[in-house]
Give the backbone structure.
Amino acid sequence: MVDFGAQYSQLIARRIRECRVFSALLPHDVDPERIAELEPAGIVLSGGPASVWDEGAPELNPALLDLGVPVLGICYGMQAMTTSLGGEVAKTGAGEFGSTALEVTARGRLLAELPAETCWMSHRDSVVRAPQGFEVTATTAESPVAAMEDRVRGFYAVQFHPEVKHTPFGTDLLKSFLFDACDAAPTWTPAAVIDDQVARIRAQVGDGHAICGLSGGVDSAVAALLVHRAIGDRLTCVFVDHGLMRMNEGEQVEAAFGKHFGVPLIHVRAKDRFLAKLAGVEEPERKRKIIGEEFIRIFEEEGAKLGDVPFLVQGTLYSDVIESGGRDSATIKSHHNVGGLPEDMAVELVEPLRGLFKDEVRAVGEELGLPERMVWRQPFPGPGLAIRIIGEVTEERLEVLRQADFVLLEEIRRAGLYRDLWQSFAVLPAVRSVGVQGDERTYAYPIVIRAVTSDDAMTADWARLPHELLQAISSRIINEVQGVNRVVLDITSKPPGTIEWE
C-alpha cells in the first residue's frame, strides 16, 4: 500500500488483511526499487487530503506503474494515477461526501456481478477524462469517471472508498482485486504470522539474549511468547510495577505469568521511583516521556545485572506507531514505548507486533494458546493511571482512582458487557466541585466514566451503557469511594476525542 496521507490509510490495509492477504503501508515517496524487492502481488494507492492541483501535492512516481503488477487507485490514488497516465482531473466545483448513488456502466473485473448501487464518497476533484486504454465502469451524478479499468496493463481505480463499511460491496471489490486481478493467495493467518515473526526474531537476535518488558496485557504477553519460541531460555521477562497499576494488578500479573508461562520473571517494584519523577508534572506529553524513559532505564539496569543483554522486547502495536507520529503523520500522543523512548538507549528493540492491530494480536495469542482472560483483557496503557489522572499524579489521587476504577470494572463484568467493550475505565480530573452528602457540604473530585466500542482503536464510538448500569456504577462510586461526590459520562467518539484522556 502506497500512502498519500489519508487519515485512515491503515483501514485499507486492515480490510486486505481481513481477506487473509498481508499488506504493508509505505510512504508515497518510497523508492520503487524498495517495493520491487518486496515482490508484491499488487499495489494499492491510497486516498489523501490534498488536491492534485495543490502546490507541493504528493505525486505518484511513474516507476510504480512499471513494476509489472496490478495497481488499484482509491480516491486521491485514482486521481494521481489519472494525471500520471495522461487523463484529466478537474475542479468541478461540486464535491461528493457520504452515501452516493452509483451507476454501473460496464461490469469489468472489479465490479463483476456485485450489487454496486451505492458507495461512500469523500472528494472535491473529479476525474473527467480517463487515460487512454481505460474503460469507464461506473459513474455518479458528479463523477463522470467513478470507476475505471485497463485490464491489459492491470490498472484499476475507483473514486469511492471500498474500505469503509458504508460502501456495502467494498470488501467484495477488494477481493476481486486481490484474487482475480493480483492472483494473491489467502495465506496470511495467525499461524503464518507466528512462523514469519519467529524467523525474523531469530535473524535479529542471533545467539544473543533478550529481556521482555512484560505489562500483563495481551500485547507484551504475545510478544514474549513469540520471542521465547524463537530463542528459548535466552529470554527473561521483566515486570516493572511503577505504582500506577489498577487495584491488586501487580500481584495478579505475577501470579498469572507464573502459572501460564515457562519464562523467568523479574518483578521490579519501582513505585517510589516513578512517583518522584512525576512529582509536580501536569502536562501529559511530559508524563508519557518521563515514564517511557524510566522504563528503559530500569530495563537497562536489569539487563546489566543479567550480563550482556543487548535486546529489549516490546509489545508495540501499529496503532501506537501511528498515534506517536512520524514523517507523514501528526503526533496525537507519544506512546511511552514509541515517542516516549529516550534517544540514548543501550538496548536494541525487538518488536514482533509493530505491524499488527490489536485484534490481530489477539488472534495470534489464541493460536499460541494464551488463556482467554489474558487474550481478551481490555487494553491498559503502559503509563497506567498516570494518564487517567488529569493533572499531577499523587498517591491520594491514585488511590481514589483505583477504587473508582475497580467498582466500574466490577459492575461492567457483572452486567456481562466486558467482552462487548473495547475499553471501560475511570478518569479523575484534578478538579473539585461542590456537593452535599449527609446534609453537609462536600468539595471533592468528579469521576468520569469512559467506555467505548472499537475494532482497532484507530476509531471508536462511546458505548451506550444501560441506564440501570450507569446508576449502579454512580451510586457505588459515590457511596464507597471517599473523596468523590460526582460521576459523569464521557459521550465523545474518536475522532474528535481520543480513547484515553491524555
User: Anything to note?
Assistant: The radius of gyration is 25 Å. Confidence is low (pLDDT under 50) at residues 324-339. The longest helix spans residues 284-306.
